[in-house]
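Question: I have long wanted to understand how a fold can be written as tokens. Here is the record:
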Amino acid sequence: MIYTVTFNPAIDYIVRMDKFVAGATNRVNYEQVLGGGKGINVSIVLKNLGLDSTALGFISGFTGKEIIHQLHGFGCQSDFIELPNGFSRINVKIKTAEQETEVNGQGPDIPQEAIDELFAKLDKLTAGDTLVLAGSIPKSLPDDIYEKIMAKLENRGINIVVDATKNLLLNVLKYHPFLIKPNNHELAEMFNVTLNSHDDIIFYAKKLQELGAKNVLISMGKDGAILVDQNGSTIHSPVPKGKLVNSIGAGDSMVAGFLTGYYETGDFKRAFYMGVATGSASAFSENLATRPEVEALLKTLI
């Protein structure tokens, strides 16, 4: 079974307009409301690709109910912990032809008893299961929550995927995550360096392996992606041809695509190309990738 954890789910209110002027009344010409969060996005795309998962995390209030409603609308399973106070955050994404502006909510406070309940759910995972830890941590959670989860599940044969930034990621490498997926900018920030070439990216990806990661997938936006796998192989792929429509969820889609390819074939190369195709399919659409979209792009990569 695959499980995803989203600590701070959100309702994304996405609007498009010709021009955004701060301090003025702005009129939108397109709007969309999506339930999301990195782990939730992974669960939705996994389902679109044909794999079941269970989405875990914390939800609250009317927005939390809408997040679950949308998730179930995709056919996904969930086992969220409902918090007694507050509401799940709302993120506003303002898009114009020139730029994107984001205003992200903070989310509800998460009490210790809710954290304990999450750990009790995670304690039921067994060997062969996959756990995806993705996204930021709200202020009410301890900074080392990822570490605590991985320490609790260590040596139990569970494949853990971590998609997080800088210290959140660096601090868990000692627990040997199955897959990590920083982008090239995050990779540079981790080592406080400038990455000038693919060779530089591969060099520092291998540094992450030396620190404990098994498979390192580096997304590079329009420059494609690089995988350094646990067998010592390195693969680079450009992005498929297409028009960028919506970058939200593209990285999460890449993770879901990689897992799908790996579950279906056990082959890291196939998993990598599946990941690239899935991330691109989401980026080229208003919505998250579907299997037909992914298969069409995959043919252009292999």
Summary: Residues 1 and 191 are 34 Å apart (CA to CA). The longest helix spans residues 250-265. The longest strand covers residues 10-16.
